[in-house]
Write the structure tokens for this entry.
Amino acid sequence: MWQAETFDIGTIERELGWAADIGMNTVRIYLHDLLFAEAPADFLARIEKVFAVAASKDIAVIPVLFDGVWNPKPRLGKQPEPKPFLHNSMWVQSPGSDIFYDRSRWSELRDYVFALLSFFKDDERVIAWDLFNEPDQVDVVTLKLESREEKIATATELVSTVFNWAREVGVTQPLTIGVWEYEKDGQVATNSLNQLIVDQSDIISFHCYERREKLTAVIKALATHGRPLLCTEWLARTAGSTVDLLSVFKDAGVGAINWGLVDGRTQTRFPWRSWTTQVNDDEPWFHELLRADGTAYDVQEIETFRRLTSD
């Protein structure tokens, strides 16, 4: 999306228009440190264009600076083609593991954070900064080690550093990182990283792809922190996170941003289990709401969005 060769503001404008038509008023937008390292001014200019288009549709933005999910070896240049029927086969982490585990290179990330946040620190189009998406998520490195302990420990240190950088910039928007693992009773899983995230976040954001009962328990547990709640990832149909759960968020006064809008190269309409089990085009959609031409996967789902976001 962001590289100069593939940046397509026309498609972005069209799809944000579809989002607005459904009733969405906020989108979460992933960025990447390598794009800043390659050409800082050009990257910031492209971000500005996207923010301007979003604002023209009355859509606010929540930029995501870093991401600990999927491929830990990102590279610039032409990206590989998606592997057929495979969920998120091309998604890359930011920073890659080469920088993530090398503290001597974190200064490169500091330059990115300071430049980006300083540029938009008073921008009313940005309603929050999501500093790091699932920084301790499982990946090929943790699978090889058969443990997430090192990643959790490193992520805790890096996340603390990123929070400090952001506060040093003095952004006027709230800072947050989403928690994503829970105990059976809905409480956030206990580890050093989650404790830091909950302590440091100005608003409590979270990911929840659970069924109604578990989602309700998670919201109840998170509400005890006394801060605004925002679910920044939900909707995984065959896992039980379905569009009708939008009413749960509305009744609880919790903001909600579902994963996925238009079926495309990320192929997240296929389920997570596509990494271990062969699936095909007959598979019920996991994420996403619209086909590539803007038509609905399920018309009733779109009607639900419009009805519940109309007031």
Q: What stands out?
A: The chain has one domain: 64-306. The chain is about 40% helix and 10% strand. The longest strand covers residues 60-67. Strands lie at 26-30, 60-67, 129-133, 175-176, 178-179, 204-207, 229-233, 255-256.
